[in-house]
Specification:
disordered N terminus, Rossmann fold
Length: 286
Amino acid sequence: MVNAVENFRADDDGLVCPEVGSWAETKYRLLYLYDELFASGMKNKWQERVYIDLYAGAGYSRIQGTNTILKGSPLLALSVSHPFTKYIFCDEEQELLDALKIRTERIGPDKNVVFIPGKCDAQIETICSEIPRASAANKVLCLCVVDPFDFGIKFDALRKLASFFVDFVVLLAIGMDANRNYDHYVDGNSPKIDEALGNKEWRVRWAAQPRRRREFRSFLAAEFSKSMNSLGYLEQPLDQMKLVKSGEKKLPLYYLALFSRHTTAHAFWKDVLKYGTDQSSFGWGD
């Protein structure tokens, strides 16, 4: 048994620590649980297991209005009981990446870690070049976490990564973004949704039948799943995505979704969704 709370909370170390909403605790708990299942389940099946974080951040974040500090996704991945063989961390803000380097060296001085400064879509070729070459004797599996602040994903970057054996855990930050900018996205000329979904045909599908504005969020999530399906990934239905809501007002903020080509990963994800609300216990396989 693993006490998840002890593993994703941290003490203040004086380095930069961006603020997040209380709902981030749910996200990090689910990521931690999935990292553990992935790392332990794949350790004897793939010679190299690579963790990629496209929006790595500083490694720590503080819940607004509290002294509670949470470990971010890179440090959670470094903390798994069966470590990945390589870690690739990318972030466009140098200050955050510098803090992450210090925190990484503190908790994983022996880990094989590469830090890539810059926007992940602009640096995608560099990121891909850091993935070890696979062979018959050296199978390579990657887990890529995609955790942007808004629905600013560039699908072309994911398409390039998908040429490798990569599973994705993606935060679809379309709750508040889709509501606030609905008119701009649907009736305007903004390419943001086109780039995030990797197509422009979504506009035709949205206009094809009358829909209520509040359905735009779930529509975009389903469209993203279709885009991933076009790359050979199993289509992920909405009921297998975790819808995370804000604290008091319970406003839909984002979906957290897994995309994999293999049913084993989806079985892991179902376990995460089942046990992810239990902060005290989770049964891990050896």
